[in-house]
Amino acid sequence: MRLLVEMETKSDVGFTPRMKPKKPKNTRTPKRKPGPSDKEAQIVQRLLKCGQFLQRETNTVCRQFGLKQQQFSVLNEIVWQGPISQKALCERLLFEKSNLSKIVKILLEKKLIRVAVAPGDRRMTLLSETPKGVALWEDCLQAFNQVSNRLMSLLADDEVAGVTRLLKKLEKAFKSQGR
Amino acid sequence: MRLLVEMETKSDVGFTPRMKPKKPKNTRTPKRKPGPSDKEAQIVQRLLKCGQFLQRETNTVCRQFGLKQQQFSVLNEIVWQGPISQKALCERLLFEKSNLSKIVKILLEKKLIRVAVAPGDRRMTLLSETPKGVALWEDCLQAFNQVSNRLMSLLADDEVAGVTRLLKKLEKAFKSQGR
DNA sequence: CGCAAATAGTTTCCGTGTCAACTATAATAT
DNA sequence: ATATTATAGTTGACACGGAAACTATTTGCG
Predict the structure, then answer these.
(1) Which among A54, B71, B117, B138 counts the fewest CB atoms within 10 Å?
(2) How many CB atoms within 10 Å of residue B141?
């Protein structure tokens, strides 16, 4: 049992790299050819990598204000999107509903948001920010923006626009396909 | 205490949206102007969103094979990058070393990888895949590729190339700036 | 040499993300 | 009206991720 390898020039990390440093000889039947450079899987892999890294990085930023990144995202969305239900938040932020429920609980305990029963449908709750929530949000947002600028400093202006457009497209795809 | 709001047309989610549905009147002093459309923070936010979504999605894929997405990523990297140390894996995958240590332990328990003390430096361990590991990796990779294709189906070919290039650039930035 | 600092990896503790099962309300069917 | 199904949100169990503290080597330096 050895690996199928196609020797080429130095490549980068990814799902279907073109070079495997060791084991130059193929002594193994190619049951599954190593996906002819599966670009899509590479993107997913890279997005995961960047996402996880950014999550750690932004968590340390938000922690200064006693929040986690997800909690801040929810607070941010509530501030901007006015009274909004958990359902709507889930859809906008691509969150898991049980997770969101717990985040909401924490934000409530911290008195950063307020909750009201939706008129006309008592299942639904409408969330809105408190003055205290807005104050914390402002401070945290400033720090968040600062770190974001540092992290994205390598991107040129047109690249920034391009990334934004593409991520928006992906989000849309996820929203429609998501479970 | 009310929000500073600039009314405009319907906008999308993000850090500096141009419309706030409710509260059309600004009755609050703009202590901090709402970052003149902080594009960078928006990108970070979107990357986080997509990353978290993809993590859930790929986790369910990997779970069919008894793995989590991160475990699969590590296995994948070990398969492609031959005998490799935890340190190197951390750098390539942008992982936390304590987390990686635990993942390695799990993969060892499942007998998917093998460990050897590095010659010349007994602190370091060199990880390589076992036949069993390769077999599982193949199956999991196939499923992973399939899901990736589905998730990325909205992207055109040139967009795929563009995203790849930009993510590569971001990774590089993260690697240099990371802590 | 011998001791301090750096490096690779591990462990501990805690918070939290996820799935599945559950409650409560609303919509739909009979 | 009543029963069934769907929807919004909650809870509990459990495993995992992350920061910090820790161990064990190696390197650097006086």
Answers:
(1) B117
(2) 22
